Amino acid sequence: MNRSRTRMLAAMALGGALLLSACGGDTAVTELVSAGEGHLLLAEPPADLVVLDVRTPEEFAESHLAGAININVEGTGFEDAVGAIDEDVPVVVYCRTGRRSANAIRIMQDLGFTELYDLDGGIVDWIHAGLPTEN
Fold first, then answer.
1. Are 55 and 69 in contact (CB under 8 A)?
2. What's the domain range around 75?
3. Which pTM does this prediction carry?
4. What is the distance between the alpha carbons of residues 66 and 59, in angstroms, rounded to a whole number?
5. Catalytic (active site) residue 23
6. Catalytic one among 42, 54, 95, 108?
7. Quick check: is 67 in a domain?
8. Contact 48, 90 (CB under 8 A)
9. Closest CA to 42 of 81, 21, 13, 73
10. pLDDT tens figures, 69-118
């Protein structure tokens, strides 16, 4: 895919989310994104984008997305730890397959986060798509 098409798709995804948030008042924008869509979003992210891995520290150490921070959604203190992230910045949330990220998204919506992207299929689908990880 050429670079201008990549930019266009990323801009469309973010633009659509921003339009929805502008129309939604207090409603959080939550979008389920495929591995490919997530890759486009991360290829040229907005300066304040946060990539949040909600798996265990052990899983995170094995493999994670570039630039991700790790806050275990099933660990104690998740709400406090995630509360340190600015509620108004876009956050891409992922786990292994999508179950824990969906739980994290619900919690983050309750905490007032306004722009959330849930990586459909988690890091498993990301890896199956041949996309890069770090360890």
1. no
2. 3-128
3. 0.80
4. 14
5. no
6. 95
7. yes
8. yes
9. 13
10. 999 999 999 999 999 999 999 999 999 999 999 999 999 999 999 999 99
